[in-house]
Write a structure and sequence with these properties.
Length: 163
């Protein structure tokens, strides 16, 4: 794969902008797992409810490491009417959607400049686009590199759906 210097510089600039907007860098070692970190953030109530309904809480509290593209409550609110309720009523479909947001291993923001896609736990790959910011499928990455004891969380502004 051939990547021009200007594209790498642009992507690094986008990552730096996003990381810079995420607030102060974390300097201490994380002390909480991904689920606890998300719950305590206060903006992932719907995600937490969905993880519980899918039976994925213990998995994401496990050793990992995992990278989670975490949609906020506002992201879930953007779904068409009835979509969230239908997903919560269908555990198999809900599990497919949620595991589409999880990547095995730790993928930090700086890693995306070398990626055009990454395979999810669900089995399909999400597309990564670093032109004009960072996008994962149709979702903008709005905060990056929230460290947990078993991986990393990147906040996204939309729920991404597998094919």
């Amino acid at each position: 794969m051939r990547v021009s210097f200007s594209r790498v510089a642009l992507a690094l600039g986008a990552v730096a902008l996003i990381v810079g907007s995420a607030g102060p860098a974390q300097t201490a070692e994380p002390t909480k797992d991904i689920v606890t970190t998300a719950v305590q953030a206060g903006s992932f109530n719907t995600l937490s409810k969905a993880l519980a309904a899918a039976g994925l809480v213990e998995t994401l509290k496990g050793p990992g490491p995992f990278t989670v593209f975490a949609p906020t409550d506002e992201a879930f609110a953007k779904l068409p009417p009835g979509t969230l309720e239908a997903l919560l009523a269908d555990q198999a479909k809900l599990t497919k959607v949620l595991t589409y947001h999880v990547v095995p291993g730790t993928v930090m923001a700086a890693d995306v400049v070398t990626m055009s896609s990454v395979k999810t736990v669900q089995g399909q790959s999400v597309t990564i686009d670093t032109r004009g910011g960072v996008k994962v499928d149709n979702a903008n990455v709005v905060k990056t590199d929230i460290l947990a004891t078993n991986g990393v969380i990147h906040v996204i502004d939309a729920v991404i759906l597998p094919q």
